[in-house]
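Hi V.,

You were right to ask for the full record rather than a summary. Here it is.
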Amino acid sequence: MGKLALFNGKIYVEKGVYAQALWAEDGVIVGVGRNEDVPAVFHAFEVIDCQGRTVIPGLNDSHLHLIKIGTRLGQPNITGANSMDDLVQRMRDYIAANPEACANGISSTGWNQDLFTDEKRIPNRYDLDRISTDIPVVLSRICGHVASANSKALELLGLDKEGRPVEGGTIETDKNGVPNGIFTEGCTGIPYTLIPKVDQAAMVRDFEIASQYALSHGITSVQSNDAGNSSYPKPVVIEMLADLCRQGKMPLRYRAQVSFGSPEELETFAAAGGFDQPEGCDPNRFTLGSIKLFKDGSLGGRTGTMRHEYLDDPGNYGVESTSDAEMDAFCRVADKYGLQVTTHVIGDKAVEDTVGNYEKVLREGKNPLRHALIHCQITDRPLLERIVKAEIPVMYQPIFLDYDMHAVIPRCGEELSSTSYAFKTVEDLGGSVSYGTDSPVEDCNPFPNIYSAVTRKDKNGWPEGGFFPQECVDVETAIDAYTAGSAFVEFHEADKGRLKPGYFADLVVLDTDIFTCDPMKIRDILPVLTVVNGEVAWRKDNA
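Predicted structure:
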């Protein structure tokens, strides 16, 4: 690494503070100021003329699944299917074009029954039998919390005639008690055991593809749940990532969020030093970070756990993925080993219960391990105040509003919806907020995410004025959540997320001034240059 200087920019330093130039040495910013302030020595090294463009800190997605992004790019594209017929035809076309790859089974993710223009229902075994009756077919909802399988899959699983009791999920049945091919929550992985595993080389390929895609959209850091939440055993994923880091092939900064099936598994892993920093790996490039747990499901699948039944599905309170007793046990083990816990929570009961689990391991009312809530969608004001009082960071995905604003009122009611997705309220109460996308549930492109936080409108600009606009944030607040806020939740607030001396030289040069453009145009912004650790990691052609 050497020296880097940027000139003629609109460099965002912090709220209300901008600079023209920035210079860095050995991956760390050493100065920010005017063009004429740059020491002469930097002119002999890497010099970037920003030509008046806006520069922001590198964006840090606080929760996604990076390897799965690459995997998804190689699967049949069923995202946006507008009917059952469309879904079926897309899969048939893919199988016809890729017969060898599909010979022993096929899977994909992305359908959303609420987008169907015919029947707005979850695909069942008989729908997927129209795709194939010869090979197992498994298709997951866009949220990943509901999966559908065809009759061949059920036959191979021994589930074609009767269901069986399960915990942490459901195997749905018809009125005769026969499995209908629909799996929820902790059971969604059952049909995937039939899908052939790809080799480790394919996993490396998926990681590399996803990393380049992320860099091309200005993401320089990820907090990613791949280990324990993929088709590969945790040791395989962790060793693969560590090897890439040792070889200098980790193009962005990666902090692992690691999933476990039980508190006992966590205890065994932690006791054996599983969270120790891998030998030979720069901890600023790759590190094992938090434990990632799942408390409930999704709003779209009506599996997020609610204190009151879903208004559009009476009697349904959601599906609990992890029991209260298990959550307490996980938190005790985490506290014993000094590990952070991050938990997927959607419904207000899931949020309330998980806050209660965290509160039991707080230290004099403080949260030094920064146990955090991922998603934290459905909330009321007292719950938000309780979260902030307990110093629990919230890891929001504003882009979820693009779909959820059309579903949340029918399912949760207007009053509860008005205090949900409460991006601004948590900030105003003094809480810690970070942004992410949960990609590949949503595209990891951060700019539609920022657009959603600022406007609270869907991609078509609805509703006029925004969805409960009192929760809109300004652009600087959104950028801070995506940079400094995400750095805080991973204990890097002193060296990441700001363009100031002493911070990592991770930054993005944008093609549009995000601070002054029409807010409706924010979703269309793209980088022209992405810098990681003082080195150009991605550059737009001809930029």
